[in-house]
Each structure stands twice: as C-alpha cells, then as structure tokens.
Design the sequence.
C-alpha cells in the first residue's frame, strides 16, 4: 500500500470517529475547540459558507470534519475499495462489503466512482439532523439500487440481506436464515399500495409515515450508517 493510500485510510478512520462523536452527541463545543487547537486546518474547502448554509452543521463542525477527511487524504476523495476496508473495521463479526457497496453508491450521487468531502457532509447532514421526510427520501434512494425511481422486491431484499450479513452471526436474538425474506415480504406488501410490483417514492413515504413499525425497522439503517 502506498504512503498516500495509508494516509488516506488513516484520515478516513479519523473522519469515521468524528462522525461517531456527532452521532453520540459527544462532539461538544469545547471538544471541537480542542481538536481545532491540536491540529490547525491546513486548507479549508472552497465554499465552506455554502456548505454551512446547505447543511445542518456549524462552521466549527465542518472544519473538524474537513480536517479529518482532507488533511490526511490529500486527494480529497475516497474510492469504493477504501470505503469498504474502513467500513469492515466497524463490523468485524459480519461481512460489510455489500452494504458498504450500496452505501458508497448512495453517497456517490454523481456516479464518478469516488466520494468527495462535500458528498459525505451533505448525506450526513440529512441522516443525522434532517427531517423525517428528508431521511426517508434519502433511504428510498439507497434502496433504489438501479436508480429508476422505483423499488422492487429484489432491490429491497438485496439491501436488507446486506444489513443482516453485516451485523453477523452475533445478533441477538439469533436470526433464522429466512428472516430477511420474511421482513421484506411484510414490508413490501404494506408499501406496494396498488399491487403493481414496485414501490414509488410516494408509496414509500406514505407507508413509512403511516406505520411506526416500518420507521423503527428503517432506523436499523441509521444505526449502522
């Protein structure tokens, strides 16, 4: 592995750790100040003010996130292989490769094969601090693997199975092999309002907002993000 690749990988680990602090609420104002004092940002992203206006992060939070992402990864982008390698570290008892693949392509909105800092921040803003409607729209995009504007049962099955594979054999209670299929059958039946074999965005939003059980199940995605 080249020196640049190692630095990129290290930077992405730091970036992931910062995300964890944001999720758990431990990235307090004082800690942000401390982190900024420990290592000054060598160069800040162009359009930081624009990112602040477009996301739900403060300028300080954006600076910390940017330092973890860009300073240690000079290329300013992460490819899918590196993304998978880092993601696997957080789920050592399972196989995170397929879920990381789907998540990477959800982040890579321009389909360039790499994810820039701006892509991450925009998605994280929605997933961590967006409205319920915004989170559901983003989740729909994740499940719509082929990006045709609809979700079919196989796409839903692919995502759900990838999540279960990632969680591994140490889930509690222990899951039966056909559990993912059973869950998909139930959810798809509820969502496919007109029984045409596909779920539209409107059907997805309506079903999720009507049924708390679906919302709770979809929170599994947010917890493993």
Sequence:
């Amino acid at each position: 592995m080249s020196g640049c690749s190692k630095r990129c990988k290290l930077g992405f680990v730091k970036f992931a750790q910062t995300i964890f602090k944001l999720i758990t609420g431990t990235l307090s104002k004082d800690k942000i100040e401390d982190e900024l004092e420990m290592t000054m940002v060598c160069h800040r992203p162009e359009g930081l003010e624009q990112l602040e206006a477009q996301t739900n992060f403060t300028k300080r939070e954006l600076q910390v996130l940017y330092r973890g992402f860009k300073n240690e990864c000079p290329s300013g982008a992460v490819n899918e292989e590196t993304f998978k390698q880092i993601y696997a570290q957080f789920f050592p008892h399972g196989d995170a490769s397929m879920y990381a693949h789907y998540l990477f392509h959800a982040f890579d909105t321009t389909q360039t094969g790499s994810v820039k800092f701006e892509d991450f921040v925009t998605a994280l803003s929605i997933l961590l601090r967006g409205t319920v409607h915004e989170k559901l729209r983003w989740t729909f995009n994740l499940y719509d693997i082929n990006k045709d504007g609809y979700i079919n049962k196989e796409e839903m099955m692919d995502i759900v199975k990838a999540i279960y594979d990632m969680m591994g054999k140490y889930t509690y209670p222990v899951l039966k092999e056909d559990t993912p299929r059973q869950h998909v059958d139930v959810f798809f039946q509820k969502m496919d309002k007109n029984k045409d074999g596909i779920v539209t965005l409107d059907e997805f939003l309506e079903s999720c907002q009507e049924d708390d059980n679906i919302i709770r199940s979809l929170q599994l995605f947010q917890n493993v993000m």
Notes: The CA atoms of residues 89 and 96 lie 9 Å apart. Confidence is low (pLDDT under 50) at residues 1-5, 32-44. Strands lie at 77-79, 114-116, 151-152, 198-199. The two ends are 26 Å apart (CA to CA).
